[in-house]
Amino acid sequence: MTQCYAGNPGTVRPAAVKTGTTNDFKDSWTVGYTPDGDVIGVWTGNDDNSAMVDVTGIMGAAPIWHHAMLLAEQGRPIQDFPGPPSGVAKKTVHYPGLTTTDWYLQN
Questions:
Q1: Where are any strands of DSSP class E within 26-87?
Q2: Which residue ranges make up each domain of the chain?
Q3: CA 33, CA 2: separation in Å to the nearest integer?
Q4: 92 forms bridges with which residues in the sheet?
Q5: Which pTM does this prediction carry?
Q6: pLDDT tier at 57 (50, 70, 90 boundaries)?
C-alpha cells in the first residue's frame, strides 16, 4: 500500500468498485467485481456499533478489498472488461487543475 501512496500502483487489474461510508463513520464498505467474474464485498466497523475515528470506505474497507482481490486473481492473466454496456458513454471532464475520463450514463 505504501507504494501506491508513493505513486507506484504496481500491476493494474481492471475492476469496477464502489466505496461507501455512513455519515457517522460507524460503517465503511467496498464492493467490486472484475472481468473474471470475481465479486468481493468488504464491510468494516466496530462490533458495538460505535463510530470509527474518521475511517472512510477508501481507508477502511478498500485496502482489504484490494488485497483480497489480488489474492483471488493471483496467477490469472490480466483481461479487460468487454465493450461498454448500452446506455453509457466515455466522456472527458475538465475541472480546475484536474482532467478525468470516465464512463457516464447517457441522458
A1: 27-33, 39-45
A2: 2-81
A3: 23
A4: 101
A5: 0.72
A6: confident
